[in-house]
Amino acid sequence: MKRSQTQRRRTNLNPPVKETSRKTIRVVLAEDQGMVLGALAALLEIEGDISVVAQARNGKEALAAVLAHKPDVFITDIEMPKMTGLEVAAELRRRRTGTRVVIVTTFARSGYLRRALDAGPDEEAVAGKLPEYWDFYHEVRTNYRSSWALGVRDLPAELAGGKRYLFVAWGDDRVLECRVLEESTPVTATYVLAADYQDWKALLQGYDALRTVMYRKLLLEQGDLLEFFKGIYFFVESLALIAAVPTSFPAAAELPASA
After folding, report:
1. Residue 136 and residue 154: Cα distance in Å, rounded?
2. CA separation for the pair 94, 86 (Å, rounded)
3. What is the pTM assigned to this prediction?
4. 3 state DSSP class of 103
5. Are the beta carbons of 87 and 59 closer than 8 angstroms?
6. What is the average pLDDT value for the chain, to the nearest integer?
7. What is the CATH number of domain 110-244?
8. Closest of 190, 231, 239 to residue 210, by C-alpha
């Protein structure tokens, strides 16, 4: 029996659906705490297009796993035995593996900030500016004998709220002290500066350090303005180093309501 015109039209309006294949993202995980490592792996495996191809409990195992499996993404904790996540990431970049690196940490700790400041700008940053600029930077750094208290205003409740300062003291071409001051701790430094939480977040997520200072997002609250600006480029480069240390933020953080 011949089908009616209406039946043929209905058939044409419902063509077979073609399944589209999605590329599977291959992941290597590194975390020194077994329970956290297992939970993270289980959560990622729930996603249909993610495959955890290897897990590591220390930095050396992680590096070997990435080199062996050549994953699309390497997810690592920042603090691990034998090699830190930062050290593994640096080695992968040196070897040009092409693997994208995601470093997981709850807050950029003062020890890592100190190491980043002591190390100074990397080759990529140095290549982006004239040699005379870096001559001035090193001259200021060599003779710098001052301290900064870098404040964050209006922290969200998830980060304990209120205001906190990062204290950094310089001398002898290196960082003499680097620590986070609790809200109850008296703030004493050569220069005291502060910015809103959102401005710090923008800086740590890639906003330009020089613009942060020049557009008055980070304001000098205490200290001699003229003396501070004599070493402004050294300060800006140091601020960029602080911003480059991996830091994560609470996804659900809410800012305090404005008065």
Report:
1. 35
2. 12
3. 0.59
4. strand
5. yes
6. 83
7. 3.30.1050.10
8. 239
Please, what sign has the CA dihedral across residues 52, 56, 59, 62?
A: negative
- DSSP letter for 206, please: T
Alpha carbon distances (Å) from 251 to 109, 248, 255: 19, 9, 12
Q: DSSP state, 15? A: P
Checking if the pLDDT of 107 tops 70, the result is no
User: Do 108 and 246 contact (CB within 8 A), yes or no?
Assistant: yes
- Confidence band (pLDDT; 50, 70, 90) for 86? confident
Nearest in space to 231 (alpha carbons), one of 109, 148, 131:
148
Does residue 236 contact residue 210 with C-beta atoms inside 8 Å?
yes
Written as six digits, the tokens of 100 are 């994208």
CATH topology for 25-104?
A: Rossmann fold (3.40.50)
Give the tens place of pLDDT for each residue, 49-72. 889 999 999 999 999 999 999 999
CA distance 161 to 170: 28
Strand arrangement, sheet containing 100-104: 50-56, 25-30, 73-77, 100-104
SS3 59: helix
Measure the CA–CA gap between 53 and 141, rounded to whole angstroms: 45
- Other Cβ atoms less than 10 A from the Cβ of 234: the count is 20
Q: What's the distance, CA 199 to chain centroid?
A: 15
Reading the block at residue 146, the tokens are: 């001052």
CATH 3.30.1050.10 in the chain is located at: 110-244
Each residue of 139-180: pLDDT tens digit? 999 999 999 999 999 887 766 678 889 999 999 999 999 988
Question: 């953080």: which residue's tokens?
Answer: 253
